[in-house]
Write a structure and sequence with these properties.
This protein is α+β, with helices and mostly antiparallel strands and about 210 residues long. The chain has helices at about 45-60, 65-70, 145-170, 175-190, 195-205; strands spanning about 10, 35-40, 70-75, 75-90, 90-100, 105-115. The protein starts with 8 loop residues before the first strand and ends in a 5-residue tail after the last helix.
């Protein structure tokens, strides 16, 4: 088990058809005692579309998306306060996910807050941080090996479901219309040429119903 702190991992993604490297698998993400993982997702997709797809993932992943979103700025960032029950031995996981969009890249930051003991009689003191399962040298305690595997499985499931959502998201009618209108404004202002507009229009028309 690799317990070294992960600062950032970069994935290269393609516009509308995201392809992960073959070496990336569902158990790729490894935890560290700090419970803070950052992924850099590089795409060729425009910020507004990345933002829309991120919101779509939140809406399909959480039962009450309006309650888990704790902060957002259009086309720039979204923050989620999530909870996954019964991650291991009657403990649920409290976590945050921060999506930061800049140009055509997304910074995906996953932070584990603590693990909540799921019992009506439990007090807050029964909750434990992720560091509880690690020794001072950063290695996993022998008795916590299976627990860390269970936690990593949940972390990976969330991350790769987000990647899958991006990968499966075809451009919607509204997205295509929005892009076409923006291109028309640029054409009228002389920012792009007629040929550039015509080329983009031809690419967008199949998505417009």
């Amino acid at each position: 088990m690799n317990s070294k702190k992960i600062k950032a991992i970069t994935f290269i993604l393609l516009s509308f058809n995201i392809a992960l490297a073959q070496s990336i698998t569902s158990d790729s993400i490894r935890l560290n005692s700090a419970g803070n993982i950052i992924m850099s997702l590089k795409t060729k997709t425009k910020p507004n579309l990345l933002y829309n797809r991120t919101i779509k993932w939140i809406n399909t992943t959480y039962q009450n998306p309006e309650k888990v979103i704790i902060g957002q700025q259009q086309n720039e960032r979204v923050s989620v306060n999530g909870y996954k029950s019964n991650v291991f031995k009657n403990y649920g996981m409290l976590y945050h996910i921060y999506f930061t969009i800049q140009d055509s890249s997304i910074k995906y930051q996953f932070t584990i807050d603590e693990f909540k003991y799921e019992s009506s009689a439990a007090s807050p003191s029964a909750n434990v941080p992720l560091s509880f399962f690690y020794k001072k040298d950063g290695s996993v305690k022998p008795t916590a090996q299976n627990t860390i595997v269970d936690i990593e499985r949940e972390v990976n499931q969330l991350f790769f479901s987000y990647i899958q959502q991006l990968n499966n998201s075809s451009m919607t009618n509204d997205e295509a219309m929005s892009e076409l209108k923006k291109a028309k404004d640029k054409l009228d202002l002389g920012i792009i040429t007629q040929s550039e507009f015509d080329k983009l229009k031809a690419e967008l028309l199949p998505f417009i119903k």
